[in-house]
Amino acid sequence: MNKKLTLMAINCILACILMNQVAATGFIVPIKNADKSNAIKEEITETVDTEEIVEEKTEEEKNDSEETADTEETEETVMPNSVLYYGTVENIIKDDDGNITQIALSSERYGEYIMNVSEETVWVDSGNYCASNPSDLEVGEEIYIFHSAVSTRSLPPQSAAYAVVRNIPTDVGCAMYHKVEAVEKDEDGNLKITTDNGGLYIRTAEETKFSPYMTKNIVTADDIKVGSYIMAWYNVVAMSYPGQAYAGHIMILPDIADSAEIAE
After folding, report:
1. Tens digit of each residue's pLDDT (9 = 90 or more) over 4-44
2. 209: closest CA among 142, 130, 133?
3. How far is the CA of 102 from the CAs of 76, 151, 154, in angstroms?
4. Where are the beta strands (DSSP E) in the chain?
5. Is pTM, for the whole model, over 0.85?
6. 231 with 175: CB under 8 angstroms?
7. Which of 82, 132, 244, 256 is geometrically suited to a Cys-Cys bond with 123, CB 3.0 to 4.6 A?
8. Three-class DSSP labels, 32-94
9. Are strands 158-166 and 113-116 parallel, antiparallel or unpaired?
10. CA proximity to 117, closest of 160, 154, 87
């Protein structure tokens, strides 16, 4: 559209010039001047074409930018594998068989919460590096619970409990629940375990001990695979990214498919 309007304007200007010369001299413009006019016309037309190409390119870049922005907005936020809650047991709900199905808790930091317990929930005695018996859980006890990042919108909110950690000493690190995302072994047989969506490296050393959950099986560093779940005991996390920590003890948890068999 702009090109057509520009060409019309050029033709009008040339026609006016031609009429003025005829009125002044009584003669038609010589052919060489007409050729010059055509050259001017072609030069202006090329300029118009160039401007349209630039405008089209700018519009394409604008569309690309908008598409990129839309893509960034629609990218899903990476959810953590679990969330840590620390609080005091306020109520314990059991089914007809005496199995704990829910734990109501309160916390100054996290507020009130209800944790839904299932056969897949693991119970860990942090001070003794072993499994814990849920049957002796009492109201008033302070515990750690690693639960799902998804919770209900009810008050208080509810979430699925993955690991209940009890008997937490104050002088050593608490057992921490992790999913193994990657495993690397060095020439000395020590591991670098990637967890927390790449945000933490858990390293093992010669003195690191390994234990199973609720079995007498002998486990080693070779039993830690991608996709495994572990409880790791460590004291200090280096202030780097990814963070790094050396584990003194690692408990290898059963696969979800094996949890029901252990519970039985």
Report:
1. 445 455 555 555 554 555 444 444 444 444 454 455 445 54
2. 130
3. 30, 14, 15
4. 83-94, 100-106, 113-116, 122-125, 130-131, 142-151, 158-166, 175-179, 182-185, 191-195, 200-203, 209-212, 229-233, 243-246, 249-252
5. no
6. yes
7. 132
8. HHHHHHHHHHHHHHHHHHHHHHHHHHHHHHHHHHHHHHHHHHHCCCCCCCCEEEEEEEEEEEE
9. parallel
10. 160
Determine the longest span between alpha carbons in the chain, in angstroms: 119
23: enclosing H helix or E strand: helix 2-25
DSSP conformational letter for 196: G
Q: How many CB atoms lie within 10 A of CB 65?
A: 10
Helices 2-25 and 31-74 pack at an angle, to 10 degrees, of: 160
Q: Which CATH class is domain 177-263?
A: mainly beta
Q: What is the pLDDT of residues 70-114, one digit of tens each?
A: 444 444 578 888 999 999 999 999 999 999 999 999 999 999 999
Residue spans of the domains in the chain: they are 2-74, 85-169, 177-263
Strands 158-166 and 122-125: parallel
pLDDT of residue 79: 85
Q: How far apart are CA 165 and CA 163, in angstroms?
A: 6
Amino acid type, 232: A
Give CA 53 to chain center in angstroms.
41
Closest CA to 120 of 262, 264, 259, 214: 259
- The correct CATH number of 85-169 out of 3.90.1010, 2.40.50, 3.30.1380, 2.115.10 is 2.40.50
Length of the chain: 264
